[in-house]
Amino acid sequence: MIGVKFSNPVFSSSGTSGYGLELSPYIALGDIGAIVTKGISAKPKQGTPQPRIVETASGMLNSIGLQNIGARKLIDNVLPKLEDTDTKVIVNVFGDNLDGYIEVGRMFLNEDRVDALEVNLSCPNVKEGGIAFGRDPELAAEVISAVIDASKKPVIAKLTPNITDISPIAKAVEKAGASAISVINCLVGMAIDVENRRPYFKNITAGLSGPAIKPVALRVVWETAKAVDIPVLGIGGISTGRDALEFIMAGATAVQVGIANLINPGTISDVVEEISDFCTENKISDLKEIRGII
Ligand SMILES: Cc1cc2nc3c(=O)[nH]c(=O)nc-3n(C[C@H](O)[C@H](O)[C@H](O)COP(=O)(O)O)c2cc1C
Fold this sequence. Notes:
The chain is of the alpha/beta class and 294 residues long. The protein has one domain: TIM Barrel (Alpha-Beta Barrel), CATH 3.20.20. Helices cover 32% and strands 18% of the residues. The chain is built from nine helices and 14 strands. The strands form three sheets. It has an eight-stranded parallel β-sheet. Strands 3-4-12-9 form a four-stranded antiparallel β-sheet, with no helix packed on it. Strands 10-11 form a two-stranded antiparallel sheet. Helix 2 packs parallel to helix 4, helix 4 (137-151) runs parallel beside helix 5 (167-175) and helix 6 (214-227) packs parallel to helix 7. The protein starts with 9 loop residues before the first strand and ends in a 13-residue tail after the last helix. The structure holds flavin mononucleotide. Flavin mononucleotide (FMN) is lined by residues 13-16, 38-39, 60, 62, 64, 66, 92, 120, 158, 185-186, 209-210, 213, 235-238, 257-260.
């Protein structure tokens, strides 16, 4: 897929397992198809003030605001430590504007340890960049082709579900040269602090993830896979092999595990094993046999 040979189709999702190394005390990094790092910008970013997370009945709301260490620190301090690990590395990147996306893309031009960039066009928690680009097909295409030009890497476009119809955006990023599309980022939600009669988060709205969003994510993956010919990476509420299989049957080529890692950091190994058991039991030799089968 995307010109990279992954050992398996189960990746970590951006922002839910740090820069990759954080998972290493709990799971062999080689068991992960690819580490997708926390979103990285050219310069470090502080993010939003506390509180930043709240639990919901079947998921979590977050308002991190893309806090990150910046590309320089990732390149100098983190990538060398990933050198001898046998997982692929996908760096999730974003900018406050088009120049910001180009600047961060260019910083990975000569970084051979990085197999691909995932471009975040979908963060619900920042005013500039993020979601504003992911709702406009022309802007989304402009960002994707600029990052491909700047980085010379395979580029995965991460799109938002907070939109009426994903097809025009998906088609635009495919035309602009994206190697794949990952969906979904968080849904926009909110929580109220009843005692203080105020929104719980300073930004008022926040990003919802976890089991609650899985049915929406499945629908968006299915719609995206119908709209484009490039691979789709399914994300949203995946915590078991059967969840992952649902995404594959809806048309996903690979999946990413997000906040399930916060509950059990070994989730990715379990998901890989459950998919493999299902394939053995059902005499499936290649996931292609069931991809998009619905
Ligand atoms: C705390 C937190 C931080 C996140 N940070 C990022 C990020 O920096 N970039 C990004 O593209 N997605 C980010 N996401 C979105 C996840 O990668 C994923 O798309 C979303 O959580 C849905 O998957 P899940 O339900 O399995 O968690 C973040 C999610 C959470 C919960």
